[in-house]
Specification:
Rossmann fold, six-stranded mixed sheet, two-stranded antiparallel ribbon, globular
Length: 183
């Protein structure tokens, strides 16, 4: 069975850049956020989200993501409620994905909330990607065309770099795509 290498880091840390480097080397990379979006569009997830967040969150049998994000990133209890719906579905999805690569030496499981979701428990090793806070904020503001306040609310809902580093096997400081340092 392939070893599972967890890849995590806070929003804007550069996890995607590091994941792309692994992909360029031929290593399969599972992107948890993309999987979460995919499974959240299943009938099962939509029914649970409708039941827990109300009919107004669903438009044309699809989730109004901006409305849902506004709710969950302003209410930690609602965020936990959403995570209790999505995380088990992502875990199943990952298991199915992993079956395709079980004969390889290892795969990468990229997840912003690897620790918060408990997914780190399924990993053999963990890499945390870090970057200075202001660089992270600038990256996300540019990428998502969103406000500093919105980004800071998301950061508040994630573990700090220090907490992640304490549980990680490796750390990559991603200050710039041309300057990656490893510890």
């Amino acid at each position: 069975m392939a070893k599972i290498i967890g890849l995590t880091g806070g929003i804007g840390s550069g996890k995607t850049t590091v994941a792309q480097l692994f992909e360029a080397l031929g290593v399969p990379v599972y992107i948890a956020d993309a999987a979460a979006k995919e499974v959240s569009e299943t009938a099962e997830a939509i029914a649970q989200i409708r039941e827990n967040f109300g009919e107004e969150i669903i438009e044309d049998n699809r989730i109004n993501r901006s409305l849902l994000a506004n709710i969950v990133f302003n209410d930690p209890g609602k965020l936990q409620q959403l995570n209790r719906i999505i995380h088990p579905l992502v875990k199943i999805h990952f298991g199915e994905w992993l079956e395709n690569f079980k004969k390889l030496p290892f795969v990468i499981r990229e997840a912003a909330i690897l620790f918060e979701s408990g997914s780190y428990l399924d990993c053999d090793k963990i890499i945390t990607v870090t970057a200075p806070l202001e660089i992270r904020i600038e990256r996300v503001m540019h990428r998502d065309n969103t406000s500093r306040e919105s980004i800071l609310k998301r950061i508040e809902n994630q573990w700090s770099d220090e907490m992640k580093i304490a549980k990680s096997d490796f750390v990559i400081e991603n200050i710039s795509p041309k300057i990656l340092s490893y510890r």
